[in-house]
Amino acid sequence: MKLDIVSIFPEYFAPLEISLLGKARRAGLLDVAVHDLRQWAHDRHRTVDDTPYGGGPGMVMKPEPWGAALDAVAPGPELPRLVVPTPSGRPFTQATAAELAGEPWLLFACGRYEGIDSRVVADAATRMRVDEVSLGDFVLAGGEVAVLVMVEAIGRLLPGVLGNAESVADDSFAPGSMESLLEGPVYTKPPVWRDRAVPDVLLSGHHGAIARWRRDEALRRTARHRPELLARLDRDGLDARDRAV
Ligand code: ADE
User: Fold this and answer.
1) Which parts of the sequence belong to the tRNA methyltransferase TRMD/TRM10-type domain (predicted)?
2) How much is the pTM?
3) Looking at the structure, do residues 115 and 191 belong to the same domain, yes or no?
């Protein structure tokens, strides 16, 4: 997968050199290029922002540098899918990550300040698919951290990136029978630590009982932390034993 990222802070993306994604890049599974937006700002101060029309606090990113940047990074005829992180976007979920992981080329545009002049997305949308996405109901100082989050969520789904393919299947929110349930607690050796024993069932070797226990724990954790997810599970998604938990 090819990833282009445009930002006024290219240094933000140094973490993409390390760990899982760094390894994926070195293995040729991910081709990442980070571009400094200011290279497309041509005045003496390389200005990328200006005051908002209509008044109000803060600054808005100017359309000219963004237009030039998107034209240069994606000149066509092949075009990427453009992803713009913004608190006013649609929610970015595991399903969004999975959908974007199926694309050959993604271009991320990191806004700062009060956002990017709205004509930039309108113009880009005439030639490429554009997704304005939000990580949640909170406001970051800019899109950079949001892009790091999305790139990690998408990158780990690419074939060959995770060593153990099963770990994706077991994730909270992964599609399947445990979809929309939070993952329950996990344990490793030693069997007793600070007088706390690992639940016996996990040492029993009884796969059916272990699967049942995991589902019960997932249901309990979901009820405690995300009751609205349980409410969303349609009645057919719960068996008699689930309802007893
Ligand atoms: N930029 C600023 N806040 C954001 C958020 N919550 N999600 C995505 N991008 C953002």
Assistant:
1) 1-231
2) 0.92
3) no
